Amino acid sequence: MAKYFDVHPENPQQRTIGSVVDLIRSGSLVAYPTDSCFALGCQLGNRDGISRIRTIRNLDDRHHFTLVCESFAQLGRFVHLDNDVFRAIKASTPGPYTFILRATSEVPKQLLHQKKKTVGVRIPDHAVAQALLAELGEPILSSTLLLPGEDEPLTQGWEIKERLDHVVDAVVDSGDCGTQPTTVIDFSGDEAEIVRRGAGDTARFE
Questions:
Q1: What number of other Cβ atoms are within 10 A of residue 197's Cβ?
Q2: Which residues contact 143 (CB under 8 A, 6 or more apart)?
């Protein structure tokens, strides 16, 4: 059964955050809130966690996993940024955006798009997600908690606990965080490509 953590949405309890991060470090898969939907997350390099996310979401090898980062400085360790892309991303973070970029050698190979060698990165504007990232000290490998055959992500912690009780190790609940996923911008080509229109405004990328 999954452990259930009730966390204050604006002032996360440090002891609870520490308990969740201990689980992540021990190889657990957790469902946690962000500024756009709940996400499934595990530690970077957790092969079992990656496999479990693929199974829960029925994902193929072309799926872009996302490295959810605490800060722009941390994000810059994992992807290549030229000056124009740097400015565009800097102006949009933190916020409900995922950016697809060419990965550096810091990213485990099993996370990369097989042909493009790219990975998704984002910096959430959410107190609980930021508290988890600060305590962990590294990105959380993540994917939107959208189940196969469903049009919208799960938004209620109790429902996630009920439906995924035997396939995740913990649920972090800080209240409803919406149904709109992130806006996805692909910067891996010559021009920015809007892959998915979601919670973030796309005007500056068009």
A1: 12
A2: 39, 40, 41, 53, 57, 59, 63, 65, 66
- Bridge partners (DSSP) listed for residue 121: 67, 99
- Tell me the per-residue pLDDT of 100-152, one tens digit each, with 9 for 90 and over: 999 999 998 888 777 788 999 999 999 999 999 999 999 999 999 999 998 88
CA angle 19/78/142 to nearest 5° reads 45
For the packed helices 127-136 and 14-25, what is the interaxial angle rounded to 10 degrees?
Answer: 60
Q: How far apart are CA 28 and CA 46, in angstroms?
A: 9
Judged on CB neighbours under 10 Å (0-12, 13-18, 19+), 115 is: exposed
Predicted model pTM: 0.95
Strands (E), 38-129: 38-43, 66-68, 97-102, 118-122
In sequence order, which residues have a C-beta less than 8 Å from that of residue 46 and are 6 or more positions away? 27, 29, 141
